[in-house]
């Protein structure tokens, strides 16, 4: 197949639409006739008559300049702070290259959507580092997800029970980190209206007591342990 | 004589099994306690620090406009 001459054809040709033939002779297009192919859908529908000079040089096809494809209208939802949040969630991550960090980053969008009813605070790397330097017992445990129970804090501040930490940094495999994260999200979502959150954390997440020991024995608990 | 020896072995093995079970339960519980760490008066300074960062305006609630 011979190459087309560079002067006779335009360098790029818009893709023909359904029902349009690429071998249509130019003579069939009457000047001033309604547009059959291409064209601006927002325009009036009348295509300007091709000029004679163009018709002479482009003997085989007529170039139809398509407008830029109108993009889909992007609806942007405005941020509305939750009306009555039960929890305040902080994510502290100083940037250890750990599996837990990767799991957290990969699932962050989903986490954010699942915690829409809570206030979410994301500490920058610098702030996380400063924070962990002030509280050295947390070194090596981050990424940390700190959950403050606002209801408990309204009662007695930070002196008694007021929330819990998820120390994702102690997880060694991606599966462990992901499962711990999923357990955490499920717990927060299902215990939003709990009246005794501390007791439920102790029994359901930490498997304390005789029942917890039995559950560990029966391998009901090792989900969070990755066992 | 053999009966007594056999009994002694059984008792020792049983005790070892129980000890291992107790150790394993304790190990897993410790790991769960460490993973899901409950905040109380001992961690008041950590929580107060975060609280101060919020109240001083250093930390703002995270949000990004979501495309519908």
Order of helices and strands of chain A: HEEHHEHEHEHHHH
Question: End-to-end span of chain B in angstroms?
Answer: 82 Å
Helix content of chain B: 55-70%
- Write down the Rg of chain A: 32 Å
- Secondary structure tally, helices of chain B: 2
Largest interface: A-B, 54 and 38 residues
What is the count of distinct domains of chain B?
1
Net shape of chain A: globular
* Major pleated sheet of chain A: 4 strands, mixed
Count of alpha and pi helical runs of chain A: 9
Going by helix content, strand content and strand pairing, the class of chain A is alpha+beta
Which bin fits the share of residues in helices of chain A?
Answer: 25-40%
What is the number of independent domains of chain A?
Answer: 2
Mean pLDDT of chain B: 84
Could you describe the 3D structure shown?
By secondary structure, chain A is α+β, with helices and mostly antiparallel strands. Chain A folds into 2 domains: 22-66, no CATH class; 87-225, no CATH class. Helices cover 34% and strands 10% of the residues of chain A. Chain A has 9 helices and 5 strands; from the N terminus they run αββααβαβαβαααα. Chain A has helices at 52-57, 99-106, 108-114, 125-134, 150-156, 174-190, 197-205, 209-217, 222-225; strands at residues 76-77, 87-92, 119-122, 144-149, 163-167. Chain A has a 4-stranded mixed β-sheet. In chain A, helix 2 crosses helix 6. Chain A is globular. Mean pLDDT of chain A is 69; it is low at 1-9 and 16-60. Chain B has 68 residues and is mainly α. Chain B is 68% helix and 9% strand. Chain B is built from 2 helices and 2 strands, in the order H-E-H-E. Chain B has helices spanning 2-35, 44-55, and strands at residues 36-39, 66-67. The longest helix of chain B has 34 residues, at 2-35. The radius of gyration of chain B is 26 Å and the shape is rod-shaped. The N and C termini of chain B lie far apart (82 Å). The relative contact order of chain B is 0.05. The model of chain B has no long low-confidence stretch (mean pLDDT 84). The chains are: A alpha+beta (227), B mainly alpha (68). The interface between A and B is large, with 54 and 38 residues.
């Amino acid at each position: 197949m011979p190459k087309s001459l560079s002067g006779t054809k335009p360098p790029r040709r818009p893709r023909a639409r359904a029902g349009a033939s690429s071998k249509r002779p130019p003579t069939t297009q009457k000047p001033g006739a309604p547009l059959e192919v291409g064209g601006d859908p927002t325009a009036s529908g009348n295509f300007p008559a091709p000029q004679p000079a163009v018709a002479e040089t482009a003997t085989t096809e007529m170039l139809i300049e398509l407008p830029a494809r109108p993009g889909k209208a992007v609806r942007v939802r405005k941020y509305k702070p939750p009306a009555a949040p039960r929890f305040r969630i902080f994510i502290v991550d100083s940037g250890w290259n750990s599996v837990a960090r990767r799991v957290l980053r990969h699932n962050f969008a989903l986490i954010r959507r699942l915690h829409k009813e809570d206030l979410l605070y994301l500490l920058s790397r610098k702030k996380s580092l400063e924070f962990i330097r002030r509280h050295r017992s947390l070194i090596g445990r981050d990424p940390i997800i700190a959950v403050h129970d606002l209801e408990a804090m309204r009662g007695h501040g930070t002196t008694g029970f007021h929330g819990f930490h998820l120390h994702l940094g102690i997880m060694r495999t991606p599966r462990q980190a992901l499962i711990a994260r999923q357990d955490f999200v499920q717990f927060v979502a299902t215990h939003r209206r709990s009246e005794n959150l501390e007791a439920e954390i102790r029994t359901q997440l930490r498997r304390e007591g005789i029942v917890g020991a039995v559950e560990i024995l029966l391998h009901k608990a090792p989900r969070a342990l990755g066992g | 004589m053999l009966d007594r020896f056999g009994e002694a072995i059984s008792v020792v093995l049983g005790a070892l099994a129980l000890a291992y079970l107790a150790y394993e339960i304790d190990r897993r519980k410790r790991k769960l306690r460490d993973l899901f760490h409950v905040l109380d008066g001992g961690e008041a300074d950590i929580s107060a620090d975060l609280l101060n960062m919020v109240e001083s305006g250093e930390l703002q609630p995270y949000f990004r406009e979501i495309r519908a």
